[in-house]
Amino acid sequence: MKTLNDFNFQGKKALIRVDFNVPLDENFNVTDANRIEAAQPTIAKILADGGSVILMSHLGRPKGKEDKYSLRHIVAKTAEVLGVPVQFATDCRGEVAQNAAANLKAGEVLLLENLRFYTEEEAGDVEFSKELASLGDIYVNDAFGTAHRAHASTTIIAQFFPNDKCFGYLLAKEIDSLNRVLNNSVKPVTAVLGGSKVSSKITVIENILDKVDHMIIGGGMTFTFIKALGGKVGDSICENDKLDLALEILHKAKEKNVHVHIPVDVIAADAFANDAQTQIVDVREIPDGWQGLDAGPRSLENFKEVIMNSKTILWNGPLGVFEMESFAKGTITLGEYIAESTANGAFSLVGGGDSVAAVKQFGLEERMSYVSTGGGAMLEMLEGRVLPGIQAILD
Fold first, then answer.
1. Which of 35, 149, 242, 329 is catalytic?
2. Catalytic: 353?
3. pLDDT tier at 121 (50, 70, 90 boundaries)?
């Protein structure tokens, strides 16, 4: 696996695919610079070598050239994070881009305009890829968030750099962290899978059953399993067409000697609202008109024992509706357990949009071993798929 450390960038122009798809407020200020900060070590290494940097990214889902999706809005924040001036090319192709790249000197940084202003980017167009490739000497992919897409700048472009392509530090760390959980884990291994639907996690569950010792099921998925086992779930979210699938998962887990832990009690509410009436009930006896919105205290005690005895922990999905304060306790408490286990020497990987949002919201990010930057990409790797953006560097 070729990384930045396999190259000296002195006198070279590094063409880096980054994921600077950052949130902006109504005045176009960056409200969360995490993705820019995550790319900083890669950019710093290239500049320190005496190379120059050309940054490629998308922003949002523009329909053609729309100013609100222009990357010019993030130039100032990017310069602030990198600690160096950032030049901006008002196009990512054609004369504008060619001239800006040609005039770039060692130690300088250039940001190209939004790649998705051209439909050729998402279509994986070869000519467009070739045009982008002509701007740099070495191709660096550091965008895990888009590594599962066979787009021009993430995958197709790599063929034009047969010997001069590598992973940036961020993407390399993502791959290493996932490999550490899926292929090189220290046992016991525990996967915590939350979220609302079994259907969205089925491939993940099937792929990791051979790799884990414990599986904690939480969130809305709980009720599909409980109903399949004959429990009453009241008005809780439930995939009635997935009951047989839930039983099949439990059967497979038993065959593979994987211990499945499902909540035994829940915080039930009489409405899907923060100010709803609540009560703690047995997960198998949720009254009609009530719905389970968070894991209960006995469930958390059970989960604590599993987490504290784990050496490798994968967390994908919250235990409850953490966006509402009344139903956030389960997710926060679980996060605290994982943080404590990590402090005691376990390796913890957090991934998937909601769990990442939760650890950030509750200030737990620094206490985890690694928090993934790619939701969809991480899920596909957990499903056992080879991501095209990764394969293109390995080929």
1. 35
2. yes
3. very high
Amino acid at residue number 64? G
Q: Which residue among the candidates 72, 180, 232, 376 is catalytic per the annotation? A: 376
Q: Which of 2, 130, 197, 360 is catalytic?
A: 197
Which tens digits make up the pLDDT trace of 6-50? 999 999 999 999 999 999 999 999 998 989 999 999 999 999 999
335 is catalytic: no
23: preceding bond cis by omega (within 30 degrees): no
Of the candidates 60, 353, 360, 384, the residue annotated as catalytic is 353
Which tokens belong to 73? 């809005």
Q: Output the six-digit token pair for 353.
A: 């949009």
Q: Among positive and negative, which fits the CA dihedral 380, 386, 389, 394?
A: positive
Six-digit token string for 59: 């922003």
The answer to whether 376 is a known catalytic residue is yes
Structure-token pair, residue 107:
């130690």
What's the pTM value of the predicted model, to 2 decimals? 0.87
Share of the chain above pLDDT 90, in %: 88
230 noted as active-site residue: no
Read off the DSSP letter of residue 105: P
* 3-state class (DSSP) for residue 377: helix
